[in-house]
Design brief:
Blueprint: H1 3-30, E1 34-36, H2 42-65, H3 77-101, E2 111-112, H4 129-144, H5 150-187
Antiparallel strand pairs: 1-2
Helix pairs in contact: 1-3, 1-4, 2-5, 3-4, 4-5
Length: about 200
């Protein structure tokens, strides 16, 4: 097996593991009634589609076909090892985030009935650790897929979703939790502890 084939397989295993980790939490979240789904709209769905193109469609096309070939470059062992380690950390963070937020998790922006503000566990470090995990997935993809388009597509696609969504999400949380959320914002950063 070539190093390139190994790196593509490692990326694919990481993506499959990501969705397998999410299954039990998604089932729990579906049982909760939604009290505020006003942000479930065309804009949010468009952002989710852009993110999926970057983290799913474009890299899968590259992994299966090598396209676009003109943007490929040679991969190194250090790059593959770093990519695997970053993806493992992303998966761990993704699992911890789901475990902490539990039944309040949602793909779209919504508040569940009897929703509580989660500020413990990994949420004591950053306000959006799931977004942190997605950025790490994007970084792992950039390392594992040696293609100037498919590699960074995850960081770009998810970055677009994040920057157009996070402010609206925080506004929704502020409206739902008021002063408690404002205090939480003052003591935490968005996705990188102590930095941003």
């Amino acid at each position: 097996m070539t190093l390139l084939a190994f790196s593509k397989i490692a990326w694919a295993i990481g993506v499959v593991a990501w969705y397998v980790l999410r299954i039990p939490f998604e089932r729990k979240a579906r049982r909760m009634k939604v009290s505020d789904a006003r942000h479930r709209n065309l804009r949010d769905m468009t952002l989710l589609t852009i993110s999926t193109l970057g983290l799913g469609v474009t890299p899968t096309l590259y992994a299966l076909t090598g396209l676009p070939r003109f943007a490929s470059y040679p991969i190194t062992v250090i790059q593959v090892v770093a990519g695997i380690l970053v993806f493992l950390f992303a998966l761990w963070l993704f699992w911890r985030t789901h475990k902490a937020i539990g039944k309040y998790w949602s793909v779209t922006l919504e508040i569940k009935e009897k929703h509580e503000l989660v500020t413990t566990g990994i949420y004591a470090q950053v306000r959006h650790p799931m977004y942190s995990a997605f950025f790490l997935w994007g970084l792992a993809q950039a390392l594992l897929l040696p293609n100037w388009i498919a590699g960074p597509a995850g960081l770009i696609g998810f970055g677009i979703l994040f920057f157009f969504r996070v402010g609206r999400e925080e506004q929704m949380m502020r409206e739902a939790f008021g002063a408690a959320y404002d205090a939480y914002v003052r003591r935490t950063k968005r996705v990188i502890p102590g930095i941003y």
